[in-house]
Amino acid sequence: MGIHTGDSITVAPAMTLSDKTFQHMRNLAIKMMRAIGEFAGGCNVQFAVNPEDESIIAVEINPRVSRSSALASKATGYPIAKIAAKMAIGYNLDELQNQVTGSTSAFFEPTLDYVIVKIPRWNFDKFPGADRTLGLQMKSVGEAMGIGRSFIEALQKACQSLEINKSGLGADGTGSTKLDDIVYNLEHASWDRLFHVKAALKLGVPIQSIFNITKIDKWFLHEIQQLVLMEQELKRYNLQNLPADFFMELKQKGYSDSQIAYVLSNVTEDEVYARRKELGIHRVYKTVDTCAAEFPSKTPYFYSTFENGYIAVDGKTVLSNESVRSDKKKIIVLGSGPNRIGQGIEFDYACVHGVLAAKEAGFEAIMVNCNPETVSTDFDIADKLYFEPVFWEHIYELIEFEKPEGVIVQLGGQTALKLSERLHEKGIKIIGTSFEDMDLAEDRGRFSDLLKNLDIPYPLYGVAESAEEALVVANQVGYPVLVRPSYVLGGQGMSIVINDEELENAVIKLLKNLPGNRVLIDHFLDRAEEAEADVICDGENIQFIGLMEHIEPAGIHSGDSFAVLPPFNLSDHVLNQMREYARKIALALNIRGLLNIQYAIKKEKVYVIEANPRASRTVPFIAKAHLVPYINIATKVMLGTHKLSDFKIEPRQFGYAIKEPVFSFDKFPNVNKELGPEMKSTGEAIRFIDSLEDPYFRHLYKEKSMYLSK
Length: 710
What we know:
- By secondary structure, the protein is an alpha+beta fold.
- It is built from 23 helices and 24 strands.
- The two termini are 44 Å apart.
- The longest helix is centred in the N-terminal third of the chain and has 17 residues, at 19-35.
- Among the domains are: 460-523, ATP-grasp fold, A domain (Dna Ligase, domain 1); 529-706, ATP-grasp fold, B domain (D-amino Acid Aminotransferase, Chain A, domain 1), CATH 3.30.470.
- It is 34% helix and 19% strand.
């Protein structure tokens, strides 16, 4: 108690409640719902349970579907909101069918033969100086969920899903080793306290002491301690003499191949995978069916786990795979993982419409994602849904099992895009733009060289791999400079600096947080206008989705800027330059699918800042403004089933649409609210106006010069 439910790690089914307590809570919940009068629909009830005597206190009741409802729906497969809506218009539970089984009533309560663990996703790195202590006010911006046969397997999969450079719960070289720091973080409920619990157990801190500090139930602490003991046992072996049964046990506890490689040392993740394959230790896929396999399921909703299988009549070991591979042409769409700043629900929009387009084009569409908040993880969107981490090992083994025609990485943001190199190395086809061309666009230095060859203006730049090199480059291109890494989203690590001291600090911090990344240093075009374009290219022809002008000047991240569609203050000369440069870049990069280009405009001259060969966060905004299914069109172009000339694209005529960023600074009262090149907004809205005389627009435009402090 004391930590907001949205910031709490959630486990289902309940692990530490007795059956008596569980049934008592159920009865109390029903009693409370009936006490509020005529009521039909979803309801959320929260309790506090005293672990000493199992006494129960009702905390609150919300007579509506809640954040927990979405999680519970994904955890059980039971469509709570859909059933609640039908009950609200007069249906009874026994009149509604369970869609998952197709043969039972919605009156059957869901039963689980697996465990789910939900871990929130925080973005404190975007808010320097923010109080990272968790409490009564929610601070997380998203969440990830892991499904496994045991609590510890589900926990490790949830950790792998977070995309915070963790290969699981520890055993990856990222944990703290200083006892004082660990104890401090146990005493203060921070976002990473779970990892400090594991680190404390590894240093030998007694379970009782950890319980006294954190009040985390000892059952969970004992489960985490099992991981510490298994890692100590693993260190006794090398890869070749690691017993097959112990190897299987490690995988059943959720250990990734990269974690096992780290603990063994001197071996690679690929070598661990190859050895595992030799021993016949493979994932099997089980169904989420609401009824613990009591009834047949019609829903293709799966998760992976490991099991020993059974011996067939011919003496061979057979794995019980509930997912049956079809003979149809199929493609896999990689999702965007947990929502966070820079990669929000816009990318799930792209994934959903991409899946639907692939189905229309005659492919079996397979969705992979781990975010319970999204539409892409609804069981009735894709032909098959795998609720799995968008994590290399899980993706590769699924590809090995399903054998698709290829994988779409353009729609899932940086999460999917960063797996493209490994897919390419393994010879797996990337649908749409090739890895080589995407990598050229993502590598800021090489992309600037391409612009030079295309005779497209760009800010003076240089590339550095150390603070010393950065100082030389900055003095060549001239201050102020924009410091930025490659292969990131949401402006991660970007900053504008005006002198050597600021530059040195920025580069050291960036290389510490993103080791191995080259730093691009651009001359910053102070007081320039900023604009962007989204296009679809089929390799020959180009369709402009939209040209947008930002109200804020260049230097404010595009995700934090108010964007106006169509541009309101750019001359025809500038717009023609933007279109010409976009056409040149799309053809030079051999784009098959989507491309986003960002521009800076100063004194009627257009400079290209960057190009992103993927769906951008502005495509849903433009699609809703124009009432054109751009993602559907782009996906069919990627798949090669259609050319742009096959579509009749007629954008709706309207005045202007404004993309409005939404901020959550009220959750972080002590942080600097000044906007800059690193994104801080947590959402967005759309507003339509008839003309530039609209008072709302005039107010925004009047304040545009207040944004940059330097």
